[in-house]
Design brief:
The chain is of the alpha/beta class. 44% of the residues lie in helices and 14% in strands.
Length: 254
């Protein structure tokens, strides 16, 4: 590393010493604190990071963040923040006070800049820019007035994220190679829409397996329903971790 930043050489050794469990983000997509605790009791040994999304946060508020932290897990607060700059900055400051490890913000320059400024109370909190949601297809972009490809949109927004000092981006497993090629800054890439082969893809349009995500260049993968809805959530999480670990190990130079 140089000045605390990961270099391209570091990335070439990205599989070295990585424990895949630490890179599995479990989306705790339940509606109550009671359901959240029940699920955490089942999967805590097989996942590394816990994602609290809009549903659970709307139901339980900041208290659920404190509860998850009591399990000794980093909290990924997936609020996908987007508002005028002052509101984003003040909101980010409140999130930083909670001791959150990751916060998602939509990849709009003013919002991202405000979020980076707002985390002063917790400089270690990573700001992740949401590029293009994994259920979005090119037709959806066109309907919104954007005529480029999804990859072009993701890369453009990743460049903005790097430019304003974000720590990483949210992108499907189909885009990491393009991001790595186009953006010199060593952004973290967090990939949702990850499914084991044969799993239901749900509403995701751009889906990859855990191995594909890691080989493509993802640093973390996000998985929710395939773990939450499995007959044995712990075993489901472990199967994903095992595939991720194999991919990390395969990425080491000979």
């Amino acid at each position: 590393m140089v000045n605390g930043k990961e270099t391209r050489m570091d990335r070439n050794m990205r599989g070295a010493g990585i424990q895949a469990k630490d890179r599995l983000v479990f989306a705790l997509d339940v509606s109550t604190a009671q359901a959240a605790e029940s699920m955490l009791d089942r999967v805590r040994e097989s996942v590394g990071v816990i994602k609290v999304g809009l549903e659970l946060f709307a139901s339980e508020g900041p208290a659920v963040v404190r509860m998850v932290r009591q399990y000794g897990k980093p909290v990924f607060l997936d609020l996908k923040v987007l508002d005028v700059a002052e509101t984003v900055q003040r909101t980010t400051a409140r999130v930083a006070d909670m001791g959150v490890a990751f916060l998602t913000v939509h990849a709009e320059r003013k919002a991202l800049s405000a979020a980076v400024k707002g985390r002063e109370a917790n400089p270690a909190m990573k700001i992740l820019a949401v590029t293009v949601l994994t259920n979005v297809e090119r037709a959806d972009l066109r309907e919104g007035g954007y005529d480029g490809t999804i990859e072009q949109a993701v890369v453009t927004r990743a460049r903005v994220a790097a430019d304003v000092g974000c720590d990483g981006v949210i992108a499907s497993g189909q885009e990491p190679a393009a991001i790595r090629s186009a953006v010199d800054s060593p952004l973290l890439i967090v990939t949702p829409g990850v499914r084991l082969a044969g799993n239901d893809v749900d509403e995701h349009a751009r889906v990859v397996t855990p191995r594909q995500a890691i080989h493509a260049g993802a640093d973390y993968v996000v998985v929710g329903r395939p773990i939450r809805d499995a007959p044995d959530p712990r075993a489901a999480a472990q199967a994903i971790v095992d595939e991720m670990q194999a991919a990390f190990d395969e990425s080491l130079p000979p």
